[in-house]
Amino acid sequence: MGKTAILNPGQDQIAYTLDGPADAPVLVLSNSLGTTMCMWNSQIDALSRRYRVLRYDTRGHGSSGAGADTGDGYTLDQLGGDVVRLLDGLGIERAGFCGISMGGLTGLWLGVHAADRIQRLVVANSAARIGSATGWTERANLVMSSGMDGVAEGARGRWFTDAFCRRSPALTDVLIDELRLCPPAGYAACCLALAAADLRDDIRAIRVPTLLIAGRHDPVTTVADGEFMRERIAGSRLAVVDGSHLSNVEDADNFTGLLRTFLG
Predict the structure, then answer these.
(1) DSSP assignment letter at 132
(2) What domains, with CATH codes, occur in the chain?
(3) pLDDT at 228
């Protein structure tokens, strides 16, 4: 796998990795809240044979900067704008995009506000409105007062089915440990972005070819959330995979196959 590089070193830096042939079509992968670009490891071998795969750490996560001030939280405009800034910095005019959960909501923002930069859009385990403002604000306050342990303890049951946890304990442990290491300020700032983000009306404007992926057992962003988006995004298609919230990890082969078929 490629080595992590830094765009614009400093407090607003974006950490990214490129894998695959330099002349191949670019595919951007955007991570879920509380994870890093490493959450896509199961996809890289297969995808990088066909695409120039660009992974990055969302702001406030991993090796990306948190910005000058996280106190008031981030905005979805900032999260989407970071993708545009990364494409600009690397001289990439257009790319395919796949985001999961928070990354999927970022993808919806791009489909609405930067459609000229996106060739095809995959929105996985996400929704046009994820959770409630109260719930996200409470979680932001929790991690700022008590750290990441409490959130990490409850994440396994949201991210994966019990059967997958029993089948792949080492893999789930790696992701939960990564969540524990997520900087609380960056995590909380993203929670506040999610608290305010609501694209339920806006997504009607999306005209980019769109694939929606939902996890059959996902308690966070449900199949019903996927159906809601499918009804409002013209020409979009919904696929349901046999996993929970991090379906690219739990049902990796099926997830990767859906991407390859849709992206061409």
Answers:
(1) -
(2) 5-263 (3.40.50.1820)
(3) 98
Smallest CA-to-CA distance from 205 within 130, 129, 113 is with 113
| Cβ atoms of 210 and 121 closer than 8 Å | yes
Q: pTM, whole model, 2 decimals?
A: 0.97
Q: Which residue has the tokens 């969302």?
A: 58
pLDDT, residue 194, reads 98
Instruction: Give the pLDDT score at 71.
Output: 81
**pLDDT, position 69:** 78
What whole-number distance in Å separates Cα of residue 99 and Cα of residue 213?
10
Pairing of strands 237-241, 210-215: parallel
Which parts of the chain sit beneath pLDDT 50? none
User: Which sign, positive or negative, has the C-alpha torsion 212, 136, 13, 42?
Assistant: negative
Virtual torsion, Cα 14, 255, 258, 256, nearest 10 deg: 60
From first CA to last CA, the distance across the chain in angstroms is 22
pLDDT confidence of residue 52: 98
Q: Which helix (H) or strand (E) holds 33?
A: none
CA-wise closest residue to 214 among 222, 206, 205: 222
Contact indicator for 136, 194 with CB cutoff of 8 Å: yes
Tens of pLDDT, residue by residue over 60-85, are 999 999 998 778 899 999 999 999 99
- Please, what is the Cα angle at 16 between 85 and 13, to 5 degrees? 55
